[in-house]
Amino acid sequence: MKKILLLLTACLIAGAGYAQKLKTLDGKPDCIKGDQNINIIFTYDDLKVGKMSEADYIERETAERNEKEAGTGDEWAVKWEKDQEDRYPPKFIELFNIHGDKLFGSKVVANSETAKYTICVNTPFIEPGFNVGVMRKPAKTNHIITIYETAKPDVILHKLEIIASPGTGAAGYDFDAGYRIQEAFAKAAKEYAQFMYKKHLK
Fold this sequence. Notes:
The protein has one domain (2-201): Rossmann fold, CATH 3.40.50. The chain contains 5 helices and 10 strands; from the N terminus they run αββββαααββββββα. The protein has helices at 2-15, 54-68, 72-86, 88-104, 177-201, and strands spanning 21-27, 38-43, 48-49, 52-53, 108-110, 117-127, 130-131, 136-137, 139-149, 152-167. Strands 1, 2, 3, 4, 5, 6, 9 and 10 form an 8-stranded mixed sheet that branches. Strands 7-8 form a two-stranded antiparallel ribbon. Mean pLDDT is 91; it is low at 1-17.
């Protein structure tokens, strides 16, 4: 019984401290209200994974996996990079468009060549979290989101920071790190749209 209580306590501790925070750093996003063709791009400048640089993290994880089973580390490294393009951005776009369209009539389009405005979502921090059955820790992502005129990328119209966006799966079936991180991006998108509506676009 004591062991069960200790495990439950550990799970609660692992999942604690993930309150998402959003803060406007500069400007107002009024310009995008009602715009159904906002360009959106995703970057990972100066990305840290946990307490490591992304390069060090990839090197460590690749080596550890290859040591356990040859080739699995190399496969993981390819997947890690592909997820940043094929998995996280589409989820962010999906959730932003659901809530942005509903709340203030705006939608984003990846790589739009005709958009007047661009939203850049930079992700400088990812905590992949873990799920080993009896214990789990949500993923967590930080984002700096800027809006600018597509033709004038140096002129920032709005800048916002998202800290500790949590990512978990329903019913605890989030054993894949990519899935947890994907859900953190989804949460960030939803909260971003709702925050802009409540603070600036209502």
